[in-house]
Automatic annotation (TrEMBL):
Keywords: Signal. Residues 1-30 form the signal peptide. The keyword Signal applies. InterPro entries: Thioredoxin-like_sf (IPR036249), Thioredoxin_domain (IPR013766). PROSITE patterns: PROKAR_LIPOPROTEIN (PS51257), THIOREDOXIN_2 (PS51352). This is Thioredoxin family protein. It holds the Pfam family Thioredoxin_7. Coiled coil: none annotated. Residues 44-203 form the Thioredoxin domain. It comes from the Bacteria. The lineage of its organism: Bacteria, Pseudomonadati, Bacteroidota, Flavobacteriia, Flavobacteriales.
Amino acid sequence: MTKSKYTFHMKRKTLLGLVLLSTVSFISCKQEKKADPVVSPSTEQTATPQPETAVDTVALKKQIEQEKETLSKPYNEDEDAQAKLNELVAQAKKEGKYVFVQAGGNWCIWCLRFNDFVQKTPELKQIVDQNFVYYHLNYSQKNKNKAVFNAYAPNARGIGYPFFFVLDGNGEVTNIISSGELEEGKGYSLEKVKQMFIDQAPKK
């Protein structure tokens, strides 16, 4: 092979090599690009906290606090609950009634709503007054009444507040009731609450 032919042959191989290298590099970049993760709009929304949610939560808390201000506070944190229950059981036995205990606290909006609902609904208040001596058993950071809860409803606090238990004339627990099944919207169902009181009343 002459020198000129050899030089031409080497230039041709070099040119082909450069073209091949460029092609491989182009394909490799495309593959890396395809491998990049794609973040969908829904993923971004999930990962990023929405300011509206925080605003709604603050507004809801404010609304609840304002509602609490309009409701009576029937729970007495300073009361000797066991002594009061003993007194009410004796009264109930004398009158042929049961003691209906609503456990909760003035911090609990659903507790205050239930009390307000019963007191302001004549149909319910009549049933209560005829069959029960009503008591609000306090549970709060200031006074948890541990001994009383352990004596009458040791496992009931897990069902949430308010919850109820009923004592007969001998101070024995006849039933423990969750308020969750009585709820309706932001309040309570008249028919369910009415039936609950009827079912728990002493048989006369």
